[in-house]
Amino acid sequence: MARAGLTADRVTEAAAELADEVGFDNITVSALARRFGVADASLYSHVKNLKDLRVRVAILAARDLADRLADATAGRAGKESLAGFASAWREFARTRPGRYQATQLPLDPAVVAESAGHLRIMSITYAHLSAYGLAEPDLTDAIRLLRSTYQGFFSLEASAGFNHPRDLQDTWTKILDVLDVALRHWPSNPQGNDHEFPH
Q1: For a designed S-S bond to 24, which of 19, 89, 106, 145 qualifies (C-beta 3.0 to 4.6 A apart)?
Q2: Alpha helices, H only, 25-164
Q3: Which domain holds residue 102?
């Protein structure tokens, strides 16, 4: 009955919805089975185990995020692209918190290589910074700066960690202004320290 309509895609989508409700780290096969009204064993025809389920959710979430980032940066360059990218990522973290957490799951390189969403995120990340003219290793350093800034902000925002009365959106806008200035005036590498670093 209930199990007749189950597919791997349906199970993964339901797991992503559950993650947004209770947190990615809190999804379990048992909780998902209760949502479908079936025994735990019924789900193992569609997912191997909890690890497999979480990887599937991470792949789904990456696809969702990639679509949002692509839409937010299309036809834009420089600061406009930076702001579009950052704000789309922030909105994803706010409205799809479990899926956002899933995108942070460390995955086997072979899995990433087969995940269209993860590959698109990497491609869009590099492309939206192209107007700043950064070469390696500066480009990698810049991406690490942006990623750590965004994720720190998202984490504090999600936990209500900003207690000052200043409007949070005003702070976000200022952060993007500062990042744009930093990218446009990126310091050159000291002589003799221009070798490439791993990402």
Answers
A1: 19
A2: 29-36, 40-43, 50-73, 78-95, 97-103, 109-114, 116-127, 138-158
A3: 61-184
pLDDT tens-place string over residues 17-71: 999 999 999 999 999 999 999 999 999 989 999 999 999 999 999 999 999 999 9
Number of domains forming the structure of the chain = 1
- Look at residue 124 and tell me if it is in a domain: yes
Does 163 reside within a domain?
yes
Please give the DSSP secondary-structure letter assigned to residue 95.
H
**Assigned domain for 74 exists:** yes
Integer Cα distance of 108 and 167 in angstroms: 40
Residue range 1-28, pLDDT digits in tens: 344 589 999 999 999 999 999 999 999 9
Q: Give the domain CATH number at 120.
A: 1.10.357.10
Q: How far apart are alpha carbons 144 and 69 in whole angstroms?
A: 17
Question: Is the residue at 69 inside a domain?
Answer: yes
Cα angle 7, 33, 20 (rounded to 5 degrees) comes to: 85
pLDDT exceeds cutoff 50 at 192: no
Structure token digits, residue 10: 């349906």
pLDDT one-digit tens code per residue, 76-129: 999 999 999 999 999 999 999 999 999 999 999 999 999 999 999 999 999 999
